[in-house]
C-alpha cells in the first residue's frame, strides 16, 4: 500500500472518491474543528440531524460544493418495530439541504431477523429514485455482513474493527472480493480502551496512541473508510496525524495485535 492509497481510495464499487479517515461529529467537536478537517482533506462525513454543528457546516459547503463531499446517514433499526425509512430519508434531505444522500444505511442491525426483505426493497427504491447514491447497513452480526457482502446485497457495509476486535478478518473480509462493497469501520480505539493500559500489561511497556489505532485499521486494504469521532480539535489533529504517518510496519503491526489481544482478554465480556 502506497502513502497515496493509504490516504484516499474509491468507496468499494461505488464511484465515490473518499479520504480514508471519515468524520463523525456526534461528540460535537465544534464547527471550527469540522472546518479544519475539511481543510485537511476530509470529505467523508457520517451524520444525523442531532449533530447540528455538522449539519450547519455541510449546509454551507453543499451550497456551492455538493459534489466534493460524501454524506453517509441513515435510519436506526427499532429492534421491536419497523422504522419509517422514507420519513427518515426525507428528513435528512431537508436537514442537510441536499437533493440526495450519498450513502443511506439501515443502522444497528443485530441479526438477520432485523433485516426483513422489505427493508432492502425500500432502500433499493430510494436508490432507483435518485435520492440515494448507495445503500448499506451497519451490523453487529459479522457473519450476516459477510453473507450480504458475498451476495452483493449492499453497496456499503459498516462494522466494528480494531486491534482488539479483529473478527472481520475471518467473517467479512474474505467475502468482499467479488462484489466489492464499500467498507466503513468505526471505534478504532475500542472506545479508548486501546489507548489505556489493561490489567496485566507491564507498567514499563508501551501503550498505543490514538493515531496508531487508526493506522492499524487503515493499514488493512479492505477498509475504505475509518470513522473518527473526536470531542475537540486537539483530538482531531492527533487522529489526522495517522494519515501523515502512513501504514504500520511489521513490528508496529505485531505490537498492535499483541496489545489488542490483551485488551480483548480484559474486556471480552463487552465485545
CATH topology: TIM Barrel
Number of strands: 10
Order of helices and strands: HEEEHEHEHEHEHEHEHEHH
What is the level 1 CATH name? Alpha Beta
Q: How many DSSP H or I helices? A: 10
CA distance, first residue to last residue: 29 Å
What ranges have pLDDT less than 50 throughout 5 or more consecutive residues? none
Inertia-based shape: globular
- The portion of residues assigned to helices is 25-40%
Question: Sheet with the most strands?
Answer: 8 strands, parallel, barrel
What count of domains describes the coordinates? 1
Mean pLDDT: 94
Q: Based on helices, strands and strand pairing, what is the structural class?
A: alpha/beta
CATH homologous superfamily assignment: NADP-dependent oxidoreductase domain
Radius of gyration: 18 Å
**What assembly state would you assign to the polypeptide chains in this entry?**
single chain
CATH hierarchy: architecture:
Alpha-Beta Barrel
Amino acid at each position: 500500500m502506497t502513502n497515496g492509497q493509504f490516504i484516499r481510495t474509491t468507496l468499494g464499487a461505488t464511484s465515490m472518491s473518499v479520504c480514508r479517515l471519515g468524520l463523525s461529529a456526534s461528540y460535537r467537536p465544534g464547527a471550527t474543528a469540522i472546518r479544519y478537517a475539511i481543510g485537511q482533506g476530509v470529505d467523508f462525513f457520517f451524520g444525523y440531524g442531532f449533530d447540528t454543528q455538522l449539519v450547519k457546516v455541510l449546509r454551507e459547503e453543499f451550497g456551492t460544493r455538493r459534489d466534493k463531499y460524501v454524506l453517509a446517514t441513515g435510519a436506526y433499526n427499532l429492534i421491536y418495530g419497523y422504522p419509517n425509512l422514507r420519513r427518515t430519508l426525507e428528513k435528512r434531505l431537508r436537514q442537510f439541504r441536499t437533493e440526495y444522500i450519498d450513502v443511506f444505511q439501515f443502522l444497528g442491525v443485530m441479526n438477520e431477523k432485523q433485516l426483513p426483505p422489505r427493508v432492502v426493497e425500500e432502500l433499493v427504491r430510494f436508490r432507483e429514485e435518485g435520492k440515494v447514491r448507495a445503500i448499506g447497513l451497519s451490523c453487529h452480526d459479522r457473519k450476516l455482513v459477510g453473507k450480504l457482502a458475498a451476495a452483493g446485497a449492499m453497496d456499503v457495509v459498516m462494522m466494528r474493527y480494531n486491534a482488539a476486535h479483529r473478527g472481520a478478518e475471518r467473517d467479512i473480509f474474505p467475502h468482499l472480493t467479488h462484489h466489492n462493497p464499500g467498507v466503513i469501520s468505526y471505534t478504532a480505539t475500542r472506545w479508548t480502551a486501546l489507548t489505556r493500559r489493561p490489567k496485566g500489561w507491564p507498567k514499563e511497556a508501551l501503550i498505543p496512541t490514538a493515531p496508531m489505532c487508526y493506522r492499524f485499521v487503515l493499514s488493512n486494504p479492505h477498509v475504505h473508510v475509518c470513522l473518527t469521532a473526536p470531542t475537540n480539535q486537539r483530538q482531531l489533529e492527533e487522529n489526522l496525524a495517522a494519515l501523515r504517518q502512513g501504514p504500520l510496519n511489521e513490528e508496529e503491526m505485531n505490537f498492535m495485535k499483541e496489545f489488542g489481544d490483551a485488551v480483548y482478554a480484559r474486556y471480552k465480556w463487552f465485545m
